[in-house]
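Give me structure tokens for this 248-residue protein.
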Amino acid sequence: MKIKTILVSQPEPKMENSPYLKLIEKEKVKVDFRPFIHVEGVDAKNVRQQKIDLNNYTAIILTSRNSVDHFFRIAEEMRFKVPDAMKYFCQSEAVAFYLQKYVVYRKRKIYVGKRNFPELVPLIKKYKEESFLLPSSDALKPSVPEILNSLNIDWTRGIFYKTVISDLSDLRNVYYDVLVFFSPSGIESLLKNFPDFEQNNTRIAVFGNSTVLAANDAGLRIDIEAPTPETPSMTMALQKYITSVNKK
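Here you go.
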């Protein structure tokens, strides 16, 4: 069956040159965006119950834009003035760039990894004497605390926000040729919202090994997978599949 409609389980990209726009123009397909999950912040009282005092930390490990937003939100709720000497260890350039929303970049001590968390390790090792805080969601990759524990540093995890399943009940009678997922939480949301979901002719596209595992565990048939050496991005994987299917 030809592909005409695609639902991406993420917010719509704000970039003017989004690769999805190129996909729409080239393949004449309809692409909708709808977050299957969303983030909700926990309050300062909850953070205090985790026995976290922001005065005790000299360095912050930031793994995402959400971690940046919610660290500074909690700091404001606690009326904690973040000291100029605070060190920031950012997992990627995108996270570091986003940090400028809250601090004057050139006047702060900011250390930037390349992309993945393990690539941040050499920078953390250089400052083992610091006391690190990791603001995170309730859904944290197990590999992150494992890596930090292996470094023998003084670090604390704080749950500053939670991943929550979105209400998708308005989509019950709406059908798409392809559903695109980027996390196990997205798969969980699909099954929670539609426990009687039957895949039939719906194609499932997944990004990342953990999402592949979640889809397999849910008994879903995976039709499109990324990243691969040939298709490192989801839009490239979609493009390849659509070109193959629609020309038949």
